[in-house]
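Extended Data, panel c. Modelled sequence:
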Amino acid sequence: MKYFVLGDEDAVLGFELAGVSGARAATAEEAEEAFRKALLEGDTGILIITEEVADLIRHVVDRHLFSENFPLIVEIPGSRRTGQPGRDIRALVNEAIGIKL
């Protein structure tokens, strides 16, 4: 069972440093394609997706959440949140997968 991260460039880079593969997405089309790819791989157990990217494809994410049991989808704050104090990418990786960088 593998982790897969889908998000902005900074988030994906941070998770890749911890050994988690992923895909960067800046548009709804890129996000939807990467989401489907992660689901088709078959060995993805936990799909980590930033809130901003999830919002780009909310209808796809919600349809999966309410109809499938696997993989588990975990939404995390993105590295570029506005209006709220952000946490660094190291803290996000530590919280999401429990690996200290």
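The helical segments are 9-17, 28-40, 51-56, 58-67, 89-97. This feature is highlighted in the accompanying rendering.
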